[in-house]
Amino acid sequence: MEKVYDAHVHHLMEVPIDDAIEIFKEDFEWQGMEKYIFLAISHETNTDNTQVLTFHLQNAKCLFLKREFSPNAYAFASLVHPDDYSDPDAVAEDFLRQTKEYMSAGFDGIKMLEGYPSLLKLRKIPLDSPMFDKFYAYCEENAIPITSHIANPKDNWDPALVSEYNVSVGRAYDDTYPTKEEITEQTFRVLEKYPRLRLSLAHCGFLTYDISEMERFLSFENTIADITPGGEQLFNMAAEWDKWLPLIEKYQDRFVYGTDFYAFQRKPDGSVSHNGRPVFLRQFFETDEEHTYITETFRGVKLDKSLRDKIYRENFARLYPEPKKVDDKWLVNEVERVYREKKFRFRLEERDCEYILGKVKQSVSDK
Ligand SMILES: [Zn+2]
């Protein structure tokens, strides 16, 4: 099996951290995955999109996972937002402070979910809000990588096209949400202001419905397309492969592999519940046969091995040469803070805190 480096992994399921580690090990082995980035998500919305939920332990958990999987792992932190934004200057200052703190704690970049439609609707803080200016300027100046999830598939804004599944999980967007075009434009306004930003768009930014949007994004010098499947993007590419192949060749140093693995709960028989994306990606890039992914039939594009090597490993290796060293003291302080304040997403996070503290404190005192 060809080895892969995965730029898009999460730990968000209700699985104890020690079991999650075992699940990740099994999945990484199964996938032939040798390096990986744990992306933190500090905020999400509830399923009916009426409330922002905060996950205080996310950054610490991702940094701990990086530490456990060292030297093969990286971690991106996610900015923790305030409850109210009435003092924009203070918020901007705090985002900058957090970024500096995370980078010195051993994170390798920042994950943004701020461009998610439901978060944009509830917070009313666009991606190009001045509140992010100090953060973007600092990231640009210091070449700090950002991976950002913006919008969602275009069909989710069209009541005639959105799938029943997306309706059921709160991903159908009416006019109370910012439009797809508006979210994309916010992103381009950020890039116009900070053109050297090392910005990676998860799921290719859901821009593949229009190849010219993708080309516009890649025309900025440090932008990256994360090909993690999410909705329709690879099918869009396959449908116009004669146009996409030249674009991928032209920007062959700018596409990275990703799978969105979460350490899902084990199946009742105890086996690991892998997601279908790694198989889908390999069928897509390595074969020229017909396959089915969920309900969609597609034909693989059988990319040249040299291009595949770039997407599978070489681009990642160039972009993320050496993981930063984890600051165990920061990790202990952060976990102790969440533990003390009892800011858990799941009850089992209390136990996760004890587990992490037990492991990390031991090695701090061994030094
Ligand atoms: Zn993701």
List the helices and strands and how they pair.
Blueprint: E1 4-9, H1 17-31, E2 33-39, E3 43-45, E4 52-54, H2 58-68, E5 73-77, H3 88-105, E6 109-115, H4 117-123, H5 133-141, E7 146-150, H6 164-168, H7 180-193, E8 199-201, H8 211-218, E9 224-226, H9 233-239, H10 241-250, E10 255-256, H11 277-286, E11 290-293, E12 296-299, H12 305-319, H13 328-341, H14 348-366
Parallel strand pairs: 1-2, 2-5, 5-6, 6-7, 7-8, 8-9, 9-10
Antiparallel strand pairs: 3-4, 11-12
Helix pairs in contact: 3-5, 13-14
This protein binds zinc ion.
Residues 8, 10, 202, 260 line the site of zinc ion.
Q: How would you sum up this structure in a few lines?
A:
With 367 residues, this protein is an alpha/beta fold. The protein has 14 helices and twelve strands.
